[in-house]
Design brief:
Blueprint lengths: L2 E5 L10 H9 L3 E3 L19 H14 L5 E6 L2 H12 L3 E7 L10 H5 L14 E2 L9 H7 L6 E2 L1 H4 L14 E7 L9 H13 L4 E5 L5 H4 L1 H11 L3
Parallel strand pairs: 1-2, 1-3, 3-4, 4-7, 7-8
Antiparallel strand pairs: 5-6
């Protein structure tokens, strides 16, 4: 059975993967879903000092302290930046790298550069160190009622700190997969960047590419479809 490390998106936490986690564990897999510092149940640790590097270290330490090897490492949405940055430290622990409707950055890029369609914008300081996320409408009203009170502001440094990647993702020996939410056509923050990444992966022989019929909120709205693909990627 496979070992999965699932990295959540912005303004969320490990609880965002609770449906996917349950289904994977029921199938016999080991699943780790670290909550990034200042988010989810770790919201009490939020501060202006938290940035992308903090979140990279959260994931790296999860893998190293648990001694996880041959893992399927997945980044969802903002989590794509986090798993990319983690490669500098744990690439030799990764069997398959999966981006789930996520950013796929290059060295020196930031979340804001991807959202605004630029390469490497100047980083500016702001008085407000927290960014409030957009409202979400999940397919199931009960899911909306459960998830929305658990969405918290995210430290701005997560979006302005550049990712560090010493070589292109395609240069690593592990497999690469991009999973796109095919019905995501609305004004999702980063939506255009997700489609750019999807087109890149679909056209590259170095990537596997799949689509799931749904909007960006795949872990909550389409957990069965996500798990079905992940089990396939893991070799089941």
């Amino acid at each position: 059975m496979a070992t999965f490390v699932l990295v959540h998106g912005a303004w969320s936490g490990a609880h965002g993967f609770r449906h996917v986690r349950r289904l994977l564990r029921a199938a016999g897999h080991d699943v780790y879903t670290p909550s990034l510092t200042g988010l989810g149940e770790r919201v009490h640790l939020a501060s202006p000092l938290v940035g992308l590097g903090t979140h990279v270290r959260d994931v790296v330490n999860c893998v190293l302290f648990e001694d996880l090897r041959d893992i399927v490492l997945l980044g969802y949405s903002y989590g794509g930046f986090v798993v990319t940055g983690a490669l500098e430290h744990i690439a030799d622990h990764v069997r398959e790298l999966v981006y789930l409707d996520a950013f796929v950055p290059g060295d020196g890029e930031t979340v804001l550069s991807h959202v605004h369609g630029e390469g490497r914008p100047a980083i500016t300081l702001a008085e407000d160190w927290q960014v409030v996320g957009p409202a979400r409408a999940f397919d199931d009203p009960a899911e909306t009622a459960w998830m929305m009170p658990r969405r918290v502001p995210q430290p701005r440094g997560c979006f302005t700190e550049p990712v560090q990647l010493s070589r292109p993702i395609e240069a690593y020996p592990f497999g690469r997969t991009y999973i796109k939410a095919s019905h995501d056509t609305g004004p999702e923050p980063g939506g255009a960047a997700f489609w750019r990444a999807a087109r890149m992966a679909a056209a590259s022989p170095a990537w596997n590419y799949f689509e799931i019929a749904g909007n960006h909120l795949l872990p909550s709205n389409q957990p069965d479809a996500v798990v079905s693909l992940l089990r396939c990627i893991a070799g089941e």
